[in-house]
Design a protein that fits this description.
Number of domains: 1
Number of strands: 6
Number of helices: 6
Order of helices and strands: HEHEHEHEHEEH
Shape: globular
Helix content: 40-55%
Strand content: 15-25%
CATH topology: Molybdenum Cofactor Biosythetic Enzyme, Chain A
CATH architecture: 3-Layer(aba) Sandwich
Largest sheet: 6 strands, mixed
Structural class: alpha/beta
């Protein structure tokens, strides 16, 4: 289904080797032992040969989320930063608000496609997701819901298949 040029780009991207990634779980209650969503992201990245250079759980506080994003970018290791959690509509769900203010370019297709695929699984409740992706200071940022099923859907169907290609395009 991919065009010839898209396939050529994917081939070129794969030659660049693994992509260094950061995983951030946004939660007021999870611990490293109970963070099944963060573990699912890690598992999928490693299965595709990528590396995880940073992992942390952060409270669902906009200032903490924003500061952590800047900390990761300043460390200059991760090319892709994957957030999970805090994308809903409750008063405690602030990941979208914190990240969307920082994104220099958005990738609207990520959220749109995620919600379509999610709709196929959970029906109209998919509209509650504020999944978002974009670019911040030459890093690809993904923010997805914190449920393990949502993470697996986003990683398996959207993010993991295009991760090398995205990182390559941004570095060009």
């Amino acid at each position: 289904m991919a065009s010839e040029s898209t396939q050529q780009h994917r081939t070129e991207a794969a030659k660049k080797g693994p992509v260094a990634c950061a995983i951030i779980t946004v939660s007021d209650t999870r611990t490293p032992e109970t963070d099944t969503s963060g573990a699912a992201i890690r598992e999928r990245l490693l299965a595709r040969g990528h590396s995880v250079v940073f992992y942390r759980i952060v409270k669902d506080e906009p200032d903490q989320i924003s500061a952590l994003l800047d900390e990761i970018v300043e460390a200059d290791e991760a090319r892709v930063i994957l957030f999970n959690g805090g994308t809903g509509i409750t008063s405690r769900d602030t990941t979208y608000d914190a990240l969307s203010q920082k994104l220099e370019k958005t990738l609207p297709g990520f959220g749109e496609i995620f919600r379509v695929l999610s709709f196929e699984e959970i029906g109209p409740a998919a509209i509650l997701s504020r999944a978002v992706a974009g670019v911040y200071r030459r890093r690809i940022i993904f923010s997805m819901p914190g449920s393990s099923n949502a993470v697996k859907l986003a990683m398996d169907r959207i993010i993991a298949p295009e991760l090398s290609h995205l990182a390559w395009e941004l570095a060009r």
